[in-house]
Fold this sequence. Notes:
This protein starts with a strand and ends in an 11-residue tail after the last strand. Helix 2 crosses helix 4 (203-213) and helix 7 crosses helix 8 (366-382). It is built from 8 helices and 25 strands. By secondary structure, the protein is of the alpha+beta class. A hairpin with a 4-residue loop joins strand 21 and strand 22. The chain folds into 2 domains: 2-80 and 159-237, Alpha-Beta Plaits, CATH 3.30.70; 241-403, Alpha-Beta Plaits (2-Layer Sandwich), CATH 3.30.70.1900. It binds zinc ion.
Amino acid sequence: MAQIEITITAKSPLSLAAIKAYGGALIETGLYVAGGQLRGALGALKRFASQVEQDELDQLLGAPSQPGIKFPNCYLTNEQPAFPLPMTAQTCKRDAGFLEKGKTHGVADLLLRQLAYDCVARNGAIPIPFQYKCPECHQRTEAFSRIVEYHGKGKYAAVEASLHRQTRVAVNRSRLTTEDEMLYSVQAIDEGSRFIGLMEVDDERANSTGKWLKQITRIGGRTSRGFGAVEVIAKESFANDVLRDRVASFNAMYREFEADLRAIADDPPPADTRTLFTVNLRSDAVLRNTAGLPTLQLDLLDALGELATNEERQVLTSITPQPVAQFTGPLMVSGWQTAWRLPKEVLLATRMGGLYVFAADLGDDEHKQRTLFSLLEKLQAAGVGEMRQDGFGQIIICDPFHLEVEPV
Length: 408
Ligand SMILES: [Zn+2]
């Protein structure tokens, strides 16, 4: 597999249309380039392509016989890739946002504290309920759900969208003249805004993916009315951290919280020796259960099983990771399939930022550990659920933000 970093820069206002209100008179923009919009933009190149080039594009867009590549969501940012924060991120209610000069209240992640509390406090070993307060002012905190630029440990930036609104005269499509008294208002993302997404693609298609992505010059809606001019840069990128190390740091910090709590509990349970890990949703995910019904649950065994070799499947059966907790929220998704010019059905999805925690009994069995980490690597590249070609179901194992237990 190769990883490609896609950078999209707006060369005109962008209308990444998401919501139309008042019969289409008010058009709001989405705040990121969805994988489906990127795929649609690539599909639109077919109109000007030769037969050979069209075949090449079909290899990327997918056909019934061969699945296409997975187009990622590209999120608004300045320099570095940006991602949705985990749902367990909290900020001070009185003074929300990241620490900066003159601002001392910050954003912290609660997951490790919460997991340790749930483990030690069950059976009433700790008589007070779990509560987290801003360490600076001791006021209550609230969820901080943002797409955030990741600069590395302790360094994050919430990127604010720069938006404006344009009012236009509606044009009658059949007469091509202005409609009397029909104005509409389009919200747009300003020229100069930048979006970055990370794409996992097989080595065979990596070259042509990069080549074709760079040819995209229009993205989003109203491209015939002066919106949506973009410049796209695609370059190979290399992950600079290792999944296994992230899981190790996650567990090491969890053990510290657990040990602290066990020290104050009257009747502490035995130490938790299992390996914990999270599956974090970096885009909305469309999940179904084995009966085909929409669900917010993630069937991890099923998802890993699909990617496993026979030998790995046997080891997996002896590990059987158990769900420990999940933090998820529902939303309905629908849209327009630009690539195929068909409307999509309305589906239940699990909101980006959602996360699932699992525990696996690996002991110090190196073979089990290697197998699980290798399967989680595969899962991270493959994603979860349906519509992965359109950017749904992107994941990371153990989002590094969970280690930010003190305000950043
Ligand atoms: Zn505070």
